[in-house]
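Quick one, tokens below. Sequence please?
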């Protein structure tokens, strides 16, 4: 803390009060940091799990991809469509997060006997793939938000632990030393005046 405070008792009281607030607030910031760190770890594991399932489903779907090329005049939108994406909101350490629940698909009506065998085998794979893709996207967005807020929390903890609290302690100590020196000087000066007065009285002055 730079010397931008006054060297008096009222300033000492103000800084002590400020330091008390810092010490009360620090555990709350640390708790937020811990909660966000746990959430980041959880999301990271979920991303790894869903990503593994995504890669696996992509391999399962790969043999069917040529059928959706222009040469077959087929598109997945001809058979299924996304009707709705269900999500929910949760609060983590005071941060609102939107989480993925599921996708509701609408399947186009096609006569079963008019369907190609490849189409029958691919519909569920495509639905799973799209679901995993969206789930992964939502998790990555969650991770982005949590990482940003975790960074802010860490910065605040460092600010309190490395600057605000130590600087306030130094300021309190400095003011106390100055006030102590002034008090000693004042007492010494008073004694000198008293001694001089007594000496003058003894001399009859």
């Amino acid at each position: 803390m730079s010397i931008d405070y006054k060297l008096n008792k009222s300033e000492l009281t103000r800084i002590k009060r400020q330091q008390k607030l810092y010490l009360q607030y620090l555990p709350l910031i640390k708790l937020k940091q811990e909660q966000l760190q746990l959430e980041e770890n959880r999301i990271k594991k979920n991303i790894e799990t869903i990503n593994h399932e995504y890669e696996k489903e992509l391999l399962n779907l790969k043999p069917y991809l040529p059928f959706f090329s222009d040469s077959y005049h087929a598109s997945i939108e001809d058979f299924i469509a996304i009707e709705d994406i269900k999500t929910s909101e949760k609060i983590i350490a005071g941060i609102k997060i939107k989480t993925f629940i599921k996708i509701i698909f609408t399947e186009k009506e096609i006569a079963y006997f008019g369907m190609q065998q490849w189409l029958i085998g691919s519909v569920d794979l495509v639905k799973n793939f799209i679901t995993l893709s969206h789930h992964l996207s939502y998790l990555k967005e969650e991770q982005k938000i949590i990482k940003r807020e975790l960074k802010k929390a860490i910065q605040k903890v460092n600010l309190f632990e490395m600057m605000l609290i130590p600087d306030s302690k130094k300021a309190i100590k400095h003011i106390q030393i100055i006030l102590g020196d002034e008090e000693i000087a004042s007492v010494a000066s008073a004694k000198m005046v008293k001694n001089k007065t007594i000496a003058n009285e003894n001399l009859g002055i």
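Strands lie at 80-92, 95-107. The CA atoms of residues 12 and 172 lie 6 Å apart.
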